[in-house]
Amino acid sequence: MAATLLSNVRVLDGTGAEPFPGEVLVEGNRIKKVAKGKRQIARESAARVIDGQGMTLMPGMTEGHCHISFTGVAQPFELGMIPPEEHTLKTAANAKLLFECGFTSVYCAASAKPRLDVVVRNAVNAGELVGPRIRAASPEIVATGGLGDERMLHIHRESFALIADGPEEVRRVVRTCIREGVDNIKLNVSGDDFYPHAPGGCTTYMDDEVKMACLVAHEFGKQVATHSRSSNSVKLSVRNGVDCIYHCEHADEEALDMMEAAKDRIFVGPAVGLLHNTVHEAAPWGITEEVITKLNMRRNLEMTCEVYKEIRKRGIRAVIGGDYGFAWTPQGTNARDLLHFVNLFGYTPMEAIQLATRNGGQLMRMGDELGLVKEGYLADLLLVDGDPLADLSLLVGPQALAMIMKDGRIFKDPAEYARSERQVAAE
Predict the structure, then answer these.
(1) Under 8 Å between Cβ of 270 and 308
(2) pLDDT per residue as tens digits for the range 174-203
(3) Threshold 0.90, pTM exceeds
(4) What local confidence, expressed as pLDDT, does residue 419 receive?
(5) For 126-177, how does the pLDDT look when each residue is reduced to its tens digit (9 = 90+)?
(6) N or C: lower Cβ tally within 10 Å for the chain?
(7) What's the DSSP call for residue 251?
(8) Phi and psi based region of residue 108 (left: phi greater than 0; alpha: psi -120 to 50; beta: remaining)
(9) Which pLDDT does position 152 carry in this prediction?
(10) At a CB cut-off of 8 Å and minimum separation 6, what does 257 contact?
(11) Helix/strand/coil for 261
(12) Could you give the dihedral angle defined by the CA atoms of residues 101, 406, 60 and 271, in that order, rounded to the nearest 10 degrees?
């Protein structure tokens, strides 16, 4: 099998160890050898030798709360207004964009229509589209009156959700989504302060409904993720076997204790990008200070900071991904979450990178072969022009990525990057 040797690189392996000068040999789609120091691996062992020029070699990142079908809308109901044909094309374009920004894997947290994630995942796997590894999600399954129910008695309006009330309806909808090929089931167990009739502190699903979703999904080998802002929705999620719990900002001491007791089984994600940008960057879309106050967004951000500082202390596994794909959280800026975890929650830069690499591989259910620069692991690798531990903004967008490799195949060639850099310098 053709092999590639990456020499003269600074290896940030994702384990938490300090980066080291070294070489990495990729054979086929896996990492064959990792060596410390220069010229430790025989040049004749590789069909191609790439001089990394001292740049940082690290694992590809995982977007852990990804909505590849969210297309920059300002209001959630607008997602239901996009015709499925156009929506599929926009979803494929988003997947490609995220890949170009260093996300070699995405864990989808809900699809805006039932098969958008599935179709794009299948096309990427078949080599018909360029994109990341994708765990495809169902639409958000919600109770009547919950987050995503855009209907009114006098108007039926489509949104991004599937409505299911009671355990039997939940059973049917989950089975339908599984039939259509999803990997992840998404439940909205709490409300959201963007929905005044079902605010974030309100729990909109009950124990028997969440339990049913998990029983059915797990029987078919699928995962369950929940939108859980209220403390009770967090407890329902832990108690009934949910795999990934998003938001959690209202979590009380009991909820935190339950998450800690289950920390080897669950993942959590704050989706802080949306909260941060709503408070600080959404004014051009009419989110004024008055609106922010009315929606409790500043307090929600403060509570998120308090809870995730505690989550870090307790060693509960977190992932990055912040509800990107709205007008003020544009796709492609997803790695800003790394900075938020450091600046808002107190994680170190190394810990933040591990959330996106090691934890991401575990969330993808590929923790024994994805998310580390390690012998035997899949060769999903980034070559970064600079030191991301000193400047995490290098990972936001494609500008500093000299190489993107997935499954041992180079999709962004460092030789092309070097030529473009020389051209910029000449200009």
Answers:
(1) yes
(2) 999 999 999 999 999 999 998 878 889 999
(3) yes
(4) 67
(5) 999 999 999 999 999 999 999 998 888 898 777 889 999 999 999 999 999 9
(6) C
(7) -
(8) beta
(9) 85
(10) none
(11) helix
(12) 60
Tell me whether strands 30-36 and 61-66 are parallel, antiparallel or unpaired: unpaired
- Cβ-in-10-Å burial (0-12, 13-18, 19+) of 307 comes to buried
What are the DSSP calls for 190-224, one per residue?
B--TTSTTS-TT-B-S-HHHHHHHHHHHHHTT-EE
Residues 412-422 have a mean pLDDT of: 79
The span from the CA of 37 to the CA of 39, in Å, is 7
The pLDDT tens digits of the residues spanning 331-388 come to 999 999 999 999 999 999 999 999 999 999 999 999 999 999 999 999 999 999 999 9
* Spatial distance between the Cα atoms of 367 and 358, rounded to a whole number of angstroms: 7
The whole-angstrom separation of Cα 410 and Cα 203 is: 46
According to DSSP, residue 159 is labeled -
Question: CA quadruple 407, 223, 317, 109: dihedral positive or negative?
Answer: positive
The encoded tokens of residue 140 equal: 């958000």
Q: Quick one: which of 303, 230, 311, 221 has its CA closest to 263? A: 311
Backbone angles phi, psi at 45, to 5 degrees: -80, -10
What is the rounded CA–CA span in Å between residue 169 and residue 263? 30
Amino acid at position 334, single letter: N
Compute the distance between CA of residue 143 and CA of residue 163 in angstroms, rounded to an integer: 6
DSSP β-ladder status, 401-406 and 30-36: unpaired
